[in-house]
Amino acid sequence: MGYGFGGFGGGNMQQLMRQAQKMQQDMQRARAELDEREFTSSVGGGMVELTMLGNKTVKSLSIKPEVIDPDDKEMLEDLIVSAFNDVIAKIEIAEKETMPNMPGMM
Question: What is the tens place of the pLDDT at every residue in 20-45?
């Protein structure tokens, strides 16, 4: 066995470095795939629909005309907030499922 830090020989250290590089590449690939994935929430019986990408960029927001009531804007605001909260929760769940043991990914 070679001499080195913590009992690792030169070959073992190189192997650890290769494993670390592979893990970093896997993390980057998983993050990129998640960033491009679409997440959708439909609230209010389909009156408001929001689609975001995994990187939390809004892709689309659809509001049915019948939910737009100038005398009750609070209802529409609540639906939009609900859609955002739902989509963000879905993204966070996907992040935890995709990268459960990857530091800095939550």
Answer: 898 888 888 888 889 999 999 999 99
The tens digit of pLDDT for each residue in 31-83 reads: 888 999 999 999 999 999 999 999 999 999 999 999 999 999 999 999 999 99
Q: Domain range for residue 12?
A: 1-36
27, 43: one domain = no
Query: Has residue 81 been placed in a domain?
Result: yes
* Angle between helix 73-98 and helix 10-36 axes, rounded to 10 deg: 150
Residues 4-12: contacts with CB within 8 Å, 24+ apart?
none
> Is the same domain home to 82 and 66?
yes
Confirm if 86 and 42 have CB atoms less than 8 A apart.
no
